[in-house]
């Protein structure tokens, strides 16, 4: 079997990682690369689980949508009130 590439398995401190613009985590630029950690292993056949709960994400999205709709209704009501106030003020000047 030919070797295509080799992966470097490291275990950096979580506190030292920062989220990059591409969504990946990386060490600060002024620090040296993380050393190889022989205790880190890749388990063949295991599944990686998401750190996001789909149900909670959906509930949060629904709540955000409801808040957005509520805010839009408030803005529309304020605009209607301003138009009505302008009409009343225009009528009272005559």
Compose a concise summary of this entry.
The protein is built from one helix and two strands; from the N terminus they run ββα. The chain is mainly alpha-helical. Strands 1-2 form a two-stranded antiparallel ribbon.
Description:
The termini are far apart. The protein has a two-stranded antiparallel ribbon. With 94 residues, it is mainly α. Helix content is 41%, strand content 4%. The chain has one helix spanning 54-92, and strands at residues 18-19, 25-26. The protein contains one helix and two strands, in the order ββα. It folds into two domains: 7-44, no CATH class; 53-94.
Order of helices and strands: EEH
Instruction: Report the structural category.
Output: mainly alpha
Sheet with most strands: strand arrangement? 1-2
Give the low-confidence spans.
none
Number of DSSP-assigned strands? 2
Mean pLDDT: 90
Number of domains: 2
What is the terminal-to-terminal distance? 95 Å
Topology:
Elements: E1 18-19, E2 25-26, H1 54-92
Task: Please give a handful of descriptors for the protein shown.
94 residues; mainly alpha; 2 domains
């Amino acid at each position: 079997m030919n070797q295509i590439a080799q992966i470097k398995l490291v275990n950096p401190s979580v506190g030292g990682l920062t989220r990059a613009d591409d969504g990946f985590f990386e060490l600060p630029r002024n620090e040296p690369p993380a050393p190889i950690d022989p205790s880190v292993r890749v388990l063949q056949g295991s599944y990686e689980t998401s750190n996001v709960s789909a149900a909670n994400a959906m509930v949060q999205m629904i709540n955000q949508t409801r808040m957005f709709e509520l805010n839009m209704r408030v803005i529309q009501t304020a605009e209607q009130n301003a138009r009505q106030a302008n009409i009343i003020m225009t009528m009272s000047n005559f």
